[in-house]
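Service request form, structural biology core

Requester: graduate student, group of Dr. S.
Request type: structure prediction, single chain
Budget code: on file
Notes: please return the result as structure tokens.

Sequence provided:
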Amino acid sequence: MKSIFISGGCGGFGLAVARVFRNEGYIVGLGDLRPPADESLLCDGITFYELDVTKPESWDAALSEFTKLTGGRLDILDNNAGIIDSATIAESEPARIRAVIDVNALGVTLGARAAYPYLKKTPGSQLINIASIAGCYGIPDVGVYAATKAYVQSMTETLDLEWRRDKIRVLDINPLWAKTPISDVKSKTVTRLGVNLTPDDVAQAIWRAANPENRWDKGRLHWGVGAQDKAARVARNMVPDRVAKLIYQVLST
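Core staff response, request fulfilled:
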């Protein structure tokens, strides 16, 4: 049986991903600070491991325990854990700035590092980082969050190159706002673009990305979820910075 370990797995995207992959026959590990509210989920191939993504020793312990169930296999690490702060940079509390950077950027990096030995020895393994379309351009009122998601996109590109020789596939998922606590912020992009995605939409996108239909998709690094975020990435890549600035100014201020 194939296996997937999901950080931040006990809510939002994580639980939705767990259900999709368990229904497809995967052994699923959920890493989080606390078990899911509905502990009846922890049965029939879904197990919980206490995980603080900002601590390397916590990653090592969680993956060591999980892979005891899988015979040492780790087919997919879903680097899902993430938090947000809703404030301008000038208004942000230093402790909250550190927390967002530690979870969203440091946590992704430590997760990739800890998973590498297991992914390396599992044929066809994959690292899936959860980024955001917010990483394409800075967004007022959620600037630290947006910056960490740009970091995740860059880390995906770096690891794709570093791990190519090990035949580990690396990609990231870039949804727009979805119906989770992450979207409960005062950014005007929420009201102007709407919250149109659900955790299930993101989970299905992750499943499709993990099971590409052709060679073109297999080589894609940055995956969208809905029409809005896909269009936003294409536009950002095609237009000059001055135009992108005007677009995001209209959307976010």
